[in-house]
């Protein structure tokens, strides 16, 4: 059976599928790929179900060797990809032969590559998912050099005849995200609610799979004191005591005590996965 031998994992490579919903009552977040659309599309390009497990590769610097023939596709971030030294186009199904080496250079647009291989990455599921939850420590361990990743059996569906989907690179300058009203918007001053939409924000270098931390003006509270912990959803924008917002992502805590001023609309959430440190973020009403 074909497998993938990881020679260099880059900054951080994780096995991710579309997550493990339905366990919030146990304190377990849904987790899964941050750019769900990119993983689903890469899977479709190689004939996998949308939710087959693939690799989420942060920044790049990734290198792996195929032990046998296999179809694969790279989506999400855009950068230079090579198979056996030959360029590989993004969002395109490509065929690897035994001994071929796949290399992903540091991303030029976006920050997370999603790599799908026909058959999917065959890791033991935990609570029904093969995803790594970096906060809870559930799922497969982060990929290290020398890791041998087994592939699952080929699906019954064939590789699509049209092997390239219309796709566009993540934006290189600013990103505009649609927002829905938050459950605790009334905990903030009128000026703070206006500032959220009127001012520009910057993605912090401390952003991770738990949350995208933003830097900008202070969002002042109208209601002092602590908020009892309440449920969170992906895209919740919590505002800490510093007045700085954080967009909660897939590996977030399922409850939180900071007030949520707004929620990133589901249609905009995949784009947050590709934010680069220092990139400008603006908000609009969804």
TrEMBL record:
It holds the Pfam family CT_A_B. Residues 25-286 form the Carboxyltransferase domain. One of its GO terms (molecular function) is hydrolase activity. Keywords: ATP-binding, Hydrolase, Nucleotide-binding, Transferase. PANTHER family: 5-OXOPROLINASE SUBUNIT C (PTHR43309). This is Biotin-dependent carboxyltransferase. It comes from Agromyces tardus.
